Amino acid sequence: MTTATRTIRIATRRSLLATTQSEHVAALLRDRLGVATELVEITTEGDRSQQAGTSLVGSSTGVFVNALRDALLAGDVDVAVHSLKDLPTLPAEGIALAAVPPREDPRDVVVARDGLTLGELPAGSTVGTGSPRRAAQLHALGLGVDVVGVRGNVDTRLGKVTSGELDAVVLARAGLARIDRLDVVTEVLDPLQMLPAPGQGALAVECRADDALVEALAAVDDVPTRAAVAAERSALATLEGGCSAPIGALADIAEGEEGPELWLRVVVLSTDGSLSVRRSASAPLATDDPQRWEDAAVALGASLAEEMLAEGAGRLDETDPHDPATPPNPSPDPAHEAGSAEVHNA
Ligand SMILES: NCc1[nH]cc(CCC(=O)O)c1CC(=O)O
């Protein structure tokens, strides 16, 4: 049976954000491939514990991804759509990342009471986020705000500001854009202050590796987006081998004098934001062969991350900044312990 004659079953989580993302990909597939599509709702372990009101503090994002992949491997669905930043860096057996559609604006945003920006919030204001990356960067800004852990879907988090429980929350702009709630944004954060999570704003379209769909789905792949997220995730994968600290990364393609160039910025912070290693690098991209961009991107991310580890990025949480005996910029330790492969959910 050719792909043109089958109905493509697309797995989705049940949240508004997830169903909106999956429907977006379904529309792309109908449009580009002329296929019929059907959304199939999958309840994940993470959704169940959120419904039960239990906290998922420190949970790995794999929770949200595995149930969809299981449905894929079982043949219950043909395609799974994820927020790319929620995917663990390790590839999954039997599963292909068949397409990365064009990315949304990857930046983080503030949703604060009374239209306020971060800088306008009085000291002692409460700012909600469940992301160690956002918490560390908020602390690093030195605003004197109180960073409070929050869990739950985008609506739940917005509700904490509406109800007055929190003064502000920090969220991905892309999530709000997808559910058409950009009206609540009071500040878009400059990546200089808040580097997004690797892959933020991008979608991952997966299918079984042995399915002919792998080739067909290339129709919704965006080469520049794939290269950018490949660089970010390659840096993340390399850094995870040496640390479990919060990581922000953002890559972009700019037109240089000699042709397109890939730019990558990465930050690793101590959990409390008091220490950080920040680096950027660029690499030229071959104009004649965009398919080679991904390889160049992976190499750039890995080499930048290696440099950062050599600078002590893997030891930020081991250093006590208040102890004059420990240097603020720890020297490289070739024997650093392997960190966990956990990717935090945001
Ligand atoms: N953390 C969960 C999550 N996973 C993807 C998004 C938003 C969409 C995206 O970043 O692609 C969000 C919400 C958020 O971080 O505000």
UniProtKB/TrEMBL annotation:
<keyword id="KW-0627">Porphyrin biosynthesis</keyword>
<keyword id="KW-0808">Transferase</keyword>
<dbReference type="GO" id="GO:0004418">
    <property type="term" value="F:hydroxymethylbilane synthase activity"/>
</dbReference>
<dbReference type="InterPro" id="IPR022418">
    <property type="entry name" value="Porphobilinogen_deaminase_C"/>
</dbReference>
<dbReference type="InterPro" id="IPR036803">
    <property type="entry name" value="Porphobilinogen_deaminase_C_sf"/>
</dbReference>
<feature type="modified residue" description="S-(dipyrrolylmethanemethyl)cysteine">
    <location>
        <position position="243"/>
    </location>
</feature>
<dbReference type="InterPro" id="IPR022417">
    <property type="entry name" value="Porphobilin_deaminase_N"/>
</dbReference>
<dbReference type="Pfam" id="PF03900">
    <property type="entry name" value="Porphobil_deamC"/>
</dbReference>
<dbReference type="InterPro" id="IPR022419">
    <property type="entry name" value="Porphobilin_deaminase_cofac_BS"/>
</dbReference>
<dbReference type="Pfam" id="PF01379">
    <property type="entry name" value="Porphobil_deam"/>
</dbReference>
<feature type="compositionally biased region" description="Pro residues">
    <location>
        <begin position="324"/>
        <end position="333"/>
    </location>
</feature>
<dbReference type="InterPro" id="IPR000860">
    <property type="entry name" value="HemC"/>
</dbReference>
<comment type="function">
    <text>Tetrapolymerization of the monopyrrole PBG into the hydroxymethylbilane pre-uroporphyrinogen in several discrete steps.</text>
</comment>
<protein>
    <recommendedName>
        <fullName>Porphobilinogen deaminase</fullName>
        <ecNumber>2.5.1.61</ecNumber>
    </recommendedName>
</protein>
<feature type="region of interest" description="Disordered">
    <location>
        <begin position="308"/>
        <end position="346"/>
    </location>
</feature>
<comment type="subunit">
    <text>Monomer.</text>
</comment>
<feature type="domain" description="Porphobilinogen deaminase C-terminal">
    <location>
        <begin position="228"/>
        <end position="309"/>
    </location>
</feature>
<dbReference type="GO" id="GO:0005737">
    <property type="term" value="C:cytoplasm"/>
</dbReference>
<feature type="compositionally biased region" description="Basic and acidic residues">
    <location>
        <begin position="314"/>
        <end position="323"/>
    </location>
</feature>
<dbReference type="GO" id="GO:0006782">
    <property type="term" value="P:protoporphyrinogen IX biosynthetic process"/>
</dbReference>
<comment type="similarity">
    <text>Belongs to the HMBS family.</text>
</comment>
<feature type="domain" description="Porphobilinogen deaminase N-terminal">
    <location>
        <begin position="8"/>
        <end position="214"/>
    </location>
</feature>
